[in-house]
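Rotation project, supervised by the postdoc (A.L.). Task for the rotation student: set up a whole-complex structure prediction and record inputs and outputs verbatim in this book. Inputs entered:
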Amino acid sequence: MLDLLLSTLLDLLTLKHMTFMMVGVTVGLVIGVLPGLGGIAGLSLLLPFIYGMDQTSALAMLIGLVAVVPTADTFSSILMGIPGSSASQATVLDGFPLARQGEAARALAAAFFASMLGGMFGAVVLTAAVLAARPIILAFGSAELFMLTLFGLSTVAALSGGNLAKGVAAACLGLAFGMIGAAPATGEYRMDFDTLYLSDGLPLVIVGLGIFALPEMFDLLRGGGAIAKQGQSLGRGWFQGVRDVIRNPGLVLRCSGIGALIGAIPGIGGSVVDWIAYSHAMQTSKDRSQYGKGEIRGVIAPESANNAVQGGALLPTLLFGIPGSGSMAIFLAGMILLGLQPGPSMAERDLNITYTIIWSLAIANLLGTALCIALAPGIAKLTLVRYTLIAPFMVMVLCFAAFQATRSYYDLLALVAVGVLGVFMRRFGWSRPAFLIGFVLSLGAERYLYQAVQFSGWDFLTRPLVLVILALTLLSLWAGLRKSSGSGAINTEGAAEDSRASRMWPQLAFAAVVLGLFVFTFAEGMKNSYLALMFPVAVACVGGACALWVLFWQSRGAVAAGSANFDTEAEAKDYGPWPFLGWFLGIVALTGLIGFFAALVLFFLAFLRVVARCPWWQVLVLTAAACTFLLVLASSLNLLFPGGVLQAHVDLPWPLR
Amino acid sequence: MTKLHRRTLLGAAGAATLATPAIAQAPVTFAGRTIEFVIPFAEAGGSDVWARFLAPFLSRHLPGQPNVIVRNVPGGGSITGSNDWAQRARPDGSSLFGPSASTHLPFLLGDRRVRYDYANWTPVIVSPTGGVVWVSTRTGITDGADIARLRGQELVFPSQGATGFDLVPILALHLLGLNVRYVFGMRGRGEARIAVERGDGSIDHQTTPAYLSQVVPLVQAGQGVPLFSYGLPDAQGNIQRDPSFPDIPTFEEVYQRMHNRAPEGQAYEAYRAASIAAFAGQKPAVLLKSTPAPIIAAYRRAFEDMVADPELKARGETVLGVYPQAVGDAAESLYRHATTISPEAREWARNFLTTHHNVRF
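Outputs recorded:
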């Protein structure tokens, strides 16, 4: 075995193989930096090129990309407050406040260093486990997976913000949104308004971008200045960041372990790992007052977990041919195109392939971290640029990322709808992390509960592993609720003390809308047969009760409402986010008329001239740069942009088509 | 980029159709063009891999060696992309479409969301695959020949859903008279397979590549037993043993042995249509039927040359298996079997799904 480890390493360390790995790492870096685009988009970009490549080069290239995305996606999470991919959503909570306080360098250094350690941990786990992981993976059946989704949901207790009822209602709302589409037990369509688009459910990318990125972008635009507050420098704190990681060895180790384990169990997926790690960091901290305001442990935890996921996720992919995530599915497709068929043989006859993959993972993590650190000072300067100059680029990338989901115009509409919800949730202090956790775990919770009961009846609750996870869940609940009503409550949506309103009606109206959504969920749920109605109805009842509870307190007046009173706009003197939402609606509507590319050009010209007040030469240069970038990206992905009314009637050349 | 090429191509095609035989003789060439191979599924997954594997070979063998790109149009379990292609494609050979089992079955069952019609398309290749139904040895049998002994017990089948791919084993096991409980909501055959390996389920089916790489090791370890394969139809439409599993009997053989007569009737017709749609005729590549004949002929020839390409044979095993790739007349015949069903059999299948699995059409 040691011989094989060494020989595969030497084989990989040739100029040719390393060159291809660098190609993967570089593409991964670019894709990771761009918000919303993750491993799926990156691997689809590389897939056409592996034709005719030798296996080692191709694997090194693909793994190079997979390994680097969760490192590079930290840039936009920390610097822009926009999750770079679904793996680094939790990093935003503390990373972005750190950047605004001028500690971007420290946060980035801590994140990259933690990412590298996590990635290395994942590679080590893979090396050790590939020979023995089959029984571990087999031990997690539907019953255990259901308990794991409950464990994931228990983190809501820690992430529900200042008011538990609002947090639970937000999680229920996420669960309800996650149930759009076919019911797992019967295939009946729920809440899909009889449209093909919603029959597959809302894409995660769109929910993530809508709920986090759009509200953040509008908020930054309102501020008018740059992201980093005036007079802050970025250069300080590099060593501080690395020291922060070294001071928390236990946290890094535990979070890497969580990441690798969750990654290895097919069916849960990597998109909640960052939240689980984040809430773990919080639950195990003595002083929780800084979480959500710029606590470095809140950056270290998710970042060490999300790189470790990749090593874990390769286990079911290689051993069972079951991809644990979207990017693993594409990696699997790449393997098949290379003539490799994953299966038990990957731990026997094809062990050399497995070791090549492991070495690639380890080396790519090192290379990726080095590159990120080298590039960081340059990229970090973006936070000193006037945000009105950055915003149109963000709009472009967000729209592009959104319609990567299904490549239809509806993707943009869905983004706007979820974005509006996100704006209100942010304003009124309904925890968006809780919403997202609910959304991600929704179908899993329903599917695995139904399957567990079908396979083994309610006896499944007595299985040993189920009981262990149940105990962990209770522990996590306890740790999350401890002190959470007092000063230790985390503010996922900003400082509660600055957000006491005297005018209550906007909050009351929003709470009433939330209640209305639950009533709708209940009504839609009742239309189904027994097996498909239980979950929506139960979620609607719990969520509805919480919403009523919030309404009750809010209706008692501004002071009596206590922690239910939360309105970041209470003291606002401007027009709120609405003018900018209007701009965004403008580009979406224009896309519906004349297609995305033409709409984007007009949007750039208008926005830069009117909002950013740039001189014409600057407007033209920036617009041209944006178009070039978009065309290069779209042509390498063979992408058609969503068309509008114009395209339906007139035949136009690409990219206007 | 593609559009400009398409425009010139359209012009050439138009000239070929409008003009009399003298010009139609002019050889079709795609030099400098970009051909789209449209797949109604997301990246990764069987159809995407298949198309990406074939694309460079197609490019090599089409006259003029055009650039062939794979365009994924996912959504609605492949109905979105198929409706879209049916509505938008132009009869100029610039776009090739690759539907699959999940596209065929809703069409055969008369799903109301379907807006495409296979009769408007013509196949240039059909790539078959196969499938095997197998049980865990926890059921107490260690030899597929003992299948009759399964009658006394309830089998548990982890399934993705009754109207998709799993419709085929659902109908087969119904015909055999076995008592099977279906647990729906699996996210892929892989999950179902480990549910059986783990002991939660007891019966499962897998397509050829997954069976060979994942189930054969279980069979060798004494944990699983194959019951039957779905087989492949020959030129006359008679089901023959699958060349990947010459030792595994077909469903028809097993039925004969259990019931002492050949299967027949609406139920069997429905099974057969679904089985060929989902397996033997799983992956066709089609052009619009209204495409000018010389262009269709050029594509036919390209695919014939392609499947004879020694490099395709050498590299294709993980993607295409050992199956003979149907081109020319063979493709037509297989395509017809895979995409047609008698109105009576369709009605029977719809009724069956409504009564047994609460499916609403």
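Student's summary: The first helix of chain A runs from residue 2 to 12.
Supervisor addendum: Chain A touches chain B through 60 residues (CB under 8 Å).
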